[in-house]
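Long-time lurker, first post.

We've been arguing in lab meeting about whether zinc ion would sit comfortably in this protein at all. Half the group thinks yes, half thinks no, and nobody has a model to point at. So I'm putting the question to the forum: if I give you the sequence and the SMILES, can you give me back a predicted structure of the complex? Inputs are below. Any interpretation is welcome too.
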Amino acid sequence: MKFRFLGTGTSVGVPQIGCSCRTCTSSDFRDRRRRCGAYVSTENGAFLIDTPPELREACIAYRVSKVDAVVLTHAHMDHVAAFDDVRRFNTINGGVPLTCYCSAETEDQMHRIFPYISAKGGENGLFRPQILFDNSEVFEIAGVRVERLKVEHGFPCCGYRIGDLGYISDCHEIPDETIAMLRGVDVMVLNCLREREHPTHLSFARARAYLDRIAPKKAYLIHMCHDFTHAEWLEKLAGTNVEPAYDGLEIDCHAICNSINESRKQHE
Ligand SMILES: [Zn+2]
Ligand SMILES: [Zn+2]
Ligand SMILES: [Zn+2]
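Top reply:
Settle the argument with this. Predicted structure of the protein with zinc ion, as C-alpha cells:
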C-alpha cells in the first residue's frame, strides 16, 4: 500500500496569506504546505482522504488519475472545500458514482454545504459530483480494511485506521478506545499544529505523548502551521522515529515496515 501526502498544512495553509515570517518566505519546497489530504493506492484500487482546497493542483502535481472512493475526516472547509473536483473522477470512471465514506454527522453537513450534490432531477451531465454516501464504520477499499476512529476536535471528529496505518488529521484529544485500536501500527500520521497549546489541535507535547502510547514503528506529523520550518522540525525530532511530513512525500508502508525490521535485526 502506498500513501501519498497531498497536503500537510494547517487550515490557512503555509505560506499564509500576507505573512513574511521565515517559514512563509522559505525557499525549501517542503515549507509549502497545502491543506491536509492524502492519496492511498494499492494494485487493487485507490482512494482519497479528504478533498482539501488544493486537491486539483495536488492531483495534477502527483499524477493522480485513479480514484475509486473518498473518505472524509470531517466537514471543515480545509478538508472538503474542493469536493466538487471529484467530478473529474466520475468522468474518468465513466460516470460511475464515487462512494464517499464518512460519519452520518459529516454527511449531514456535506448536504448543507453542497446542497446541489444531493438535488434530485435537473440538468443532465456531470455538472455535480455523483456520490453515494456510506456511513459504515468498517469497510474495504482497494483491498484494504479501513476502520473509522473517534477523536475529539472541539466536536466528535474522525480518524481512520487504514490497514496498518493510522491517520488523524484534526484532534486535540484521542480517547483510550481509539488509542487501543491504533496501538502498534506500522505508520501513524498525526496532527501537530505547533509547540503552543491550542483548544482544538494537538500541540507538539500532546502529539508526542499520544505517539508514545500508540507506539507506531514510524510516525509523521501533519497539519502544521508556520511556527517552524521543515528543517527546524527535523532538528527537534532528530533521533526519534517521528518526522515532519511534507507535501508530495510518498511512503510505501510495506517497505517502511521491512526496513525497520531489518535495522532491528542488525542491532540484535
Ligand atoms: Zn484541518
Ligand atoms: Zn508565516
Ligand atoms: Zn478541522
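For your lab meeting: Residues 74, 76, 153, 170 surround zinc ion (ligand 3) (CB under 6 Å). The chain is about 25% helix and 25% strand. Whichever side wins, do check it experimentally.
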